Every structure is written in C-alpha cells, then in structure tokens.
C-alpha cells in the first residue's frame, strides 16, 4: 500500500487524471511512495489519452483516510471538490492553477499555484527543477492535459507558457499536437454512449460565493443541439441536484469545441442574476454565450461577483 | 506612484521587510513597477540589517487600496495579518512559508508556499528561475532574513535548503554568516530602548482556530528576566489587548536566543488549555518551554489543535 495518494478533483477531467499520474511518477522518482488515484469515473477524452499513451487507469478511491494519512492535491484546492473525507488527512502538497478558496492547513506545506492554463504546465517545471527526465508516456499524458484544458490553445485561460510546454512535451511524446489534440477532443465530445445523468456529472464543480452555493457543469460537444435538444429532461435532473445539494444556482454549459461558443441552461432561485452578469438574454432558461469556453475564467468569476 | 505594493505582515520582522525589498527588486528587474512597503514599525534587528546593507526603509502604508489596486504578499497569507483593507485590492502573488488559512481569491494567482524556514530561501530560487542576478545588498538582506527566522540555523523550522541558501547569499554579500548573524540577533535582543507597549506589538500575530481567536507575541532576549521581571505590568497591557480584540487566549513568549528556550505568559479565558497542550505546568500565569523557539512550528500548531 502506498504512503501518499495523489488526487485530482471530483468528476475528474483529463488534467486531473493525467497530472495525478505524472506527479505521482515524479514523486516516486524522488523517493516518495506515491500512488495516483481518482475520485470518479473517467470521461471518453481521458480514456482516449490513457489508451494512446498506454497508461493504466488510476484506482478509484472514495474515502482516502481509510488507506493513507497524507495526500497531494493536483488541479484543485477547494475542499468541496476534493475527497469527501479530505478533512481527515494531511494535505502535504498542492499543485494547481485555480483560484484559492476553502483551503486551510495547520502546518506549512508545499503549495504551488500558478495562473497558467493547466496543472501539467507547472508539472513540467517541477520535473526540470528536480532534474528528473520526462519519459515519453508521461510527456504524452501531460500534453493531453494541456490540449484538453486549453481546448487546443483556444481557451482564454491558455498562456504562452502552456503553448511552450505543449510543444516541448509533443516532441518528447513523438506526436503531432494539433492532430492528436483534435482526435482527443472529438473522442471526448462523442456523447452517443452517455446518459443524461452521465452528462450532468461528467465535469461538474461546486462553488461558494458569499452565502450562496452554485454548481457549474460543462460538456464539450461537436453538435451542441444533440445536448440542448434534450433540455426538458435535463431540467428535471438539474432540479433534483439543486434540491439535493441545496444549490442557489445550477449552470449547465454546453461548449461547441469547433466554434468556441457555449450555450447554458440556468436553473435555481438565483438564476435571475445570469442576464445581468453575462449581459445576455435568458430565454426559456437558456442563454447563448458567444466566445465563452472557460468555466474558470469566463463563468465562475462572473457568477461569483454577481452573487457576492 | 508604483502599480503594485509588495508587503509583509503586520508587526513586521526581518523576513517580512527584507523579503519585501528583495522581491520588489526582482519584480522591477522583470519589468513590473513594484514598491516594497511596510505595515508597521521596524524592530532593532531589522534596522541593524538595513543599515549594514545600506538599504532604505520601506515606506509605511496603512491603507494600501488608496494607492494601488494590486498587491503581492510575502511572508504571510492570512488576511488578519495583512493590510487592514486587503479585501479591497487584488492579491496577484503570494510568496510564503507559513500554513495557509483565511485566504481566498476570485481568480487564479501565483501562490508559492514552501515548508522552509524563511521566505528569502524561496526568493533565492525565484531569482534563479528568472535568471536575475542577486546583487550584494539584496543578498545581504535575504541572508539577514534567513539568519533571523532560523535563529542562526538553530530553530526547528530551519531546513537544509535554508542553510544552503544562507551559505550562497553570505558569499555574494561578502560577510561571515555566523559572526554577522549573532551581531544582528543581539541588536534585536537589545530591549533597553523599548517600552512595554513596544514589546507587546514588536512581533505579534493573531490566529483563528475553530471559533476561537488567539494571539502569540514573541520577543527575543539575551536576558529573559529583563522582560519577565515586569510581568505584572505586562499582564495589564495583555488584558487590554484581549478585551480590545476579543481574544480567547494571549500568549506572550520570551525566547532566550543564546540558550534556545522560552518562557511564556498566558492569559485569556482559554489559558487553561496551555498545561495540557504543552505538557508543562503554568505557575503564576507563566510557563517554561524548554527547547521551544519557533512560534510557527512549536507554538501555533499546538495551540490550534488544543483549541479546535
């Protein structure tokens, strides 16, 4: 059994999974007995990346404190996005690229957050700082994380550092970043084998703003109407989540990865803030968000400010 | 007027001041218009260091938001230790070596915390990562910070990284670390020109644990009895602070920098936890803490756990 778990957020995306695997590899090279784990099911995009680079799926662990007393968080820091029993273990490191909130420790720790587009971009620096060579499979996984988080470098979260890191990693991995990236995103946007329940939880994150709780789910699609066409059924499921989690707002975002726009369905007693916050009309609980692809940079801060 | 302020914590110590100056220098070299500021009076130790390396005192600024909209925090992250109007500005970076608590942002930022003995040890890495040469005066200031925080490498917070950084910086600064460090600590421990009010606020920090608020003040001394001999007068002042800040516990620590022990005066309605927490007898509101020199590592976590 390992001493330390390395974990990404709930409803894991490609960055959370690939960064957990790559950082656990780095820590193992440095002499720590670390194991990457996952807190939920893998999406089709991540499965595509793991298969391409022959990486094993991390083990699914629900309650980390039953196996370890120390963990490392990658790609998140907010406790409500982490393991359900995160309060029962010691967080010894965090590597992240999100805002910092709902995070507190008793002791000093290694906390490395940078305002870049992807955790893996920071990990590449850590490999270099620790003078550990990046093997081809790990390079492929980290590249996948950057291509995913940056939507092929088109997201406003993407920085020159992400582009440079991806270029370097693509060379080590021996793949063409643009070609591989599009294939990976398309695999992720293939929603044909997904139930509506799957879509709801595929990539959904909960946030707090002032006294309000809100959740933002995001689904990438080639054909947005494939999802929006089932709005009535989606709303029933969204209302169930709102009731269960006592949310004030649930925003379900469908992002067109070819045209880089999004459509969102908004429900909850605070849904009225959306029109003013995004300066866009909500018709039939639905709002068009031209040019919006980043939950982190274009959605969460806007909702947070409107609710605070 | 500068665009960005770089600031350490209230009741600044040598690390807070010297790291603010050194990091502002680095940011200026990288093209940012940054100014180091201070939130309070300088202690004798810091004055000694600034004079030795011909550095100007940072400007005293009480309300940062009246001059800038963005700040960088060094040597702290907890909001109650920062500028009183910290909530009105954007924190764009944090470089720190303390626990993380009471810190929250709306947007991603550069947050670099490492479990080392001194902020300046991390700063030396940042100079290197950014390929900026450390001039002799900045090296001297960073060295002073490390010698101060580590009590000449004798504090349990001191890591091999701090020792290595100090060695490198001493060479650049052209001083003998041991000899200079002892002179600097002695200058700081010269309490002859200090009033009791000065002693109370020289290096005092406020913390939260569960629903409780506590403060820990620390004074370095060559002759502990010089301070403890005035316990009755000190207690009157401590009670005033307790009432004003609604503290549950105030711990006033006097550290013998030659023998590396401490004596603490404890007051407040939660003072009863001290005996159990430190496994030591409190007699006449006073407790002997053999081998205890580090507030961060040997006092705050112990009180936090006992209060939580």
UniProtKB/TrEMBL annotation, chains A, B:
Gene3D superfamilies tied to this protein: DHHA2 domain, inorganic pyrophosphatase (n-terminal core)
Record's catalysed reaction(s): diphosphate + H2O = 2 phosphate + H(+)
Cofactor remark from the record: Binds 2 manganese ions per subunit.
UniProt-annotated location(s): Cytoplasm
One of the record's GO cellular component terms: cytoplasm
GO molecular function, one term: inorganic diphosphate phosphatase activity
Transmembrane segments: none
Domain of life: Bacteria
EC number: 3.6.1.1
UniProt-listed SMART domains: DHHA2
Protein residues bound to Mn(2+) 2: 15, 75, 97, 149
Primary location: cytoplasm
Keywords: Cytoplasm, Hydrolase, Manganese, Metal-binding
Binding site for Mn(2+) 1: 9, 13, 75
Cofactors that this protein relies on: Mn(2+)
Xref: HAMAP family: PPase_C
Family designation: Belongs to the PPase class C family.
NCBIfam families per the UniProt record, alphabetical: PRK05427.1
Protein name: Probable manganese-dependent inorganic pyrophosphatase
Organism: Planococcus massiliensis
């Amino acid at each position: 059994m390992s001493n330390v778990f390395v974990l990404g957020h709930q409803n894991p995306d490609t960055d959370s999974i690939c960064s957990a695997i790559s950082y656990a590899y780095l820590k193992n090279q440095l002499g720590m007995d670390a194991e990457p784990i996952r807190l939920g099911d893998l999406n089709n995009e991540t499965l595509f990346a793991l298969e391409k680079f022959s990486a094993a799926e991390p083990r699914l662990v629900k309650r980390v404190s039953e196996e370890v007393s120390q963990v490392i968080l990658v790609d998140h820091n907010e406790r409500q996005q982490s393991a359900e029993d995160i309060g029962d273990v010691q967080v010894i490191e965090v590597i992240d690229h999100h805002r910092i909130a709902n995070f507190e420790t008793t002791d000093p720790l290694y906390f490395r957050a940078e305002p870049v587009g992807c955790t893996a971009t920071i990990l590449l620096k850590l490999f270099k700082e620790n003078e550990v060579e990046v093997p081809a499979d790990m390079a492929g996984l980290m590249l996948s994380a950057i291509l995913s988080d940056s939507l092929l470098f088109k997201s406003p979260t993407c920085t020159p550092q992400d582009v440079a890191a991806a270029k370097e990693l693509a060379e080590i991995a021996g793949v063409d970043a643009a070609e591989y990236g599009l294939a990976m995103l398309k695999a992720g946007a293939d929603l044909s084998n997904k139930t509506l329940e799957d879509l709801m939880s595929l990539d959904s994150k909960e946030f707090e703003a002032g006294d309000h709780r809100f959740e933002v789910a995001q689904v990438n699609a080639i054909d947005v109407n494939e999802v929006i066409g089932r709005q009535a059924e989606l709303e029933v499921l969204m209302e169930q989540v709102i009731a269960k989690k006592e949310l004030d707002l649930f925003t379900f975002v469908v992002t067109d990865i070819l045209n880089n726009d999004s459509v969102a369905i908004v429900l909850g007693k605070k849904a009225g803030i959306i029109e003013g916050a995004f300066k866009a009309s909500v018709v039939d609980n639905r709002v068009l968000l031209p040019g919006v692809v980043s939950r982190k940079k274009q959605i969460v801060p806007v909702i947070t400010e409107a609710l605070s």
